Amino acid sequence: MSKEQRDALDTLFRNGPLDIGGDPVQQREIFTRMLTSRPLPEDVVLTPGGLGEVPVLEVGIDGVTPEGTLLWFHGGFYVFGSARTSAGLASNVARRTRTRVI
């Protein structure tokens, strides 16, 4: 993550409408809107799949042959976030490491 991206996230979280002590249903919606407010780059490819019976989202970069696979745990503690809301961050990792991210 660049310094500019880190500063933008810092501003977003400090000044955004997210209230960790607020109603969880409302906060989930706000968190999702915050993390998905910017479109993914056009070369990001999202492919639904599964690991055993667990649904996953594969994140790759069009035109890049992956040199490995990275298993990404998006966090959120079963309260916030999802594979889809973390796709922007995961795609940055995929791009920089030339991996596919699951």
Compute the separation of the termini in Å.
19 Å
The helicity comes to 25-40%
Give, in spatial order, the strands making up the sheet with the most strands. 1-2
Mean pLDDT: 87
- Total DSSP E strands: 4
Radius of gyration (Å):
15 Å
Number of helices: 3
- Strand fraction equals 15-25%
Q: Give the ordered list of helices and strands.
A: HHEEEHE
- Which segments are poorly predicted (pLDDT under 50) over 5 or more consecutive residues? none
Domain module count: 1
What general outline do the C-alpha atoms trace?
A: globular
Describe the main β-sheet briefly.
2 strands, antiparallel
Q: Structural class of the helices, strands and pairings?
A: alpha+beta
Gist?
The protein is α+β, with helices and mostly antiparallel strands. The chain is 35% helix and 20% strand. It has a two-stranded antiparallel ribbon. Strands 3-4 form a two-stranded parallel ribbon.
